[in-house]
Amino acid sequence: MEKIQEIKTSGPYYQQERELRNKVLLRPIGIPDYGWEKNDKISWHFVALKGQSVIGCVILCPLDKEKSKAQLMQMAVDAEHQGKGIGKLLVNHLLKFASENGIKEVIIHSRSEVTSFYTQFGFKTEGEEFEEVGIKHQYLSALL
After folding, report:
1. Is the distance from CB of 77 to CB of 86 less than 8 angstroms?
2. How do the domains of the chain map onto residue ranges?
3. Which of 36, 3, 6 is nearest to 18 (CA)?
4. In 3D, which of 62, 14, 11, 61 has the Cα closest to residue 34?
5. pLDDT (tens digit per residue) in 58-95
6. What is the mean pLDDT of residues 36-42?
7. Which of 105, 24, 19, 26 lies closest to 60 in space, CA to CA?
8. How much of the chain exceeds pLDDT 90, in percent?
9. HEC sequence for the chain
10. At 131, phi and psi to the nearest 5?
11. How far apart are CA 51 and CA 81, in angstroms?
12. What is the pLDDT of residues 122-137, one digit of tens each?
């Protein structure tokens, strides 16, 4: 049974989260390992655990001092566990956390091919596609 848990960057699961992000998100597009961690220390981290193994992760990064707006980032699920609802569990947990902690808006720079995944949670697309790290993305937002 998978469980979703908030973790700290000083905690025991953080290194596994970093490795999963490298494997699923960064290496396939040629970004060096650990190349997208600039906001890790100020962000909330959520992982999907199967036993003691991190099989999915997502980060929520505050975008203002009041922490009323935040960005969902670095969503990754291990290839072996994709298509099993892990991503849905992670996003639902993140949105519940955001709502309970006074965050009024969550935005995403979604890879264009997975935008429809996020729209099922109430995210709305805004503007035109844009390129980020060499990949087509779409800006999405949800008011909580």
Report:
1. yes
2. 2-103
3. 36
4. 14
5. 999 999 999 999 999 999 999 999 999 999 999 999 99
6. 93
7. 105
8. 90
9. CEEEEEECCCCCCHHHHHHHHHHHHHHHHCCCCCCCCCCHHHCEEEEEEECCEEEEEEEEEECCCCCCEEEEEEEEECHHHCCCCHHHHHHHHHHHHHHHCCCCEEEEEEEHHHHHHHHCCCCEEEEEEEEECCEEEEEEEEEC
10. -100, 135
11. 13
12. 999 999 999 988 889 9
Superfamily of domain 2-103: Gcn5-related N-acetyltransferase (GNAT) (3.40.630.30)
Give me the pLDDT at residue 8, please: 97
With contact defined as beta carbons under 8 Å apart, do 103 and 68 qualify? yes
Q: Which residue has the tokens 């298509």?
A: 83
Rg (CA), the chain: 14
Token pair belonging to 26: 């960064």
Distances in Å between the Cα of 96 and the Cα atoms of 4, 12, 85, 91, 119 are 12, 24, 17, 9, 16
Q: Write out the two tokens for 80.
A: 């072996």
Residue 1 has a pLDDT of: 63
Structure tokens at 70: 């935040």
